[in-house]
Design a protein that fits this description.
Blueprint (H helix, E strand, L loop, with lengths): L1 H18 L1 H17 L3 H18 L2 H17 L3 H18 L2 H17 L3 H18 L2 H17 L3 H19 L1
Helix pairs in contact: 1-2, 2-3, 2-4, 3-4, 4-5, 5-6, 6-7, 6-8, 7-8, 8-9
Length: about 180
């Protein structure tokens, strides 16, 4: 139940704010996710921004990256793609400092999506390929399949049917292998 979860997070937030900012930051990330899933994008953005301020002071790069990434998702949902790109770039920088390649690949993929939505297919392909390289390096077959699919989608829209089909087949093979 989302309403009950929100109430629990809000109660925990009061306690954690008294105890210190880091715990409150993690709770704010949780509340932000609830707001995002409920399509309350402005409220989600606000919570992710509050979390950011908690993590910046403690140099908690992984959590800071998550706050930037959450902001990017909320901003995209609000139609603010340029702002989403800015926050996504910040997320990648934080995840690089944290050494989390899986999150780097995920956010590079998001950058590709945002650029594709802005009509910049060349930038989208560039980010998809960078995400693909990292996903392959770390053995993340799910992210790798997504990257291949996204690239195929751009090529399909360009009517590069043969190249798109190859990428779609590789993505499908990876998803099929993943399920087994």
């Amino acid at each position: 139940d989302i309403a009950a979860a929100r109430e629990l997070f809000e109660a925990a937030l009061k306690i954690e704010r008294a105890a210190g900012c880091v715990g409150a930051g993690n709770t704010l990330l949780g509340i932000g996710l609830i707001e995002y899933r409920e399509c309350n994008f402005t409220a989600a953005l606000q919570r992710y921004e509050e979390a950011q301020s908690c993590f910046e002071h403690a140099n908690l790069w992984l959590d800071l990256g998550r706050s930037f990434s959450g902001q990017a998702l909320a901003l995209r949902a609000m139609g603010r793609l340029q702002d989403a790109i800015t926050q996504c770039v910040k997320a990648i920088a934080a995840f690089e400092k944290a050494g989390d390649k899986k999150e780097i690949a995920r956010n590079l993929g998001n950058l590709g999506v945002y650029n594709e939505e802005l009509g910049d297919d060349e930038a989208a392909i560039k980010f998809y390929k960078r995400a693909e390289q990292i996903a392959a390096q770390i053995g993340d077959s799910h992210r790798l399949a997504d990257c291949l699919y996204w690239q195929g989608k751009v090529l399909f829209q360009r009517e590069a049917w043969s190249d798109a089909e190859k990428l779609f087949k590789r993505a499908n093979e990876l998803h099929s292998t993943e399920k087994n």
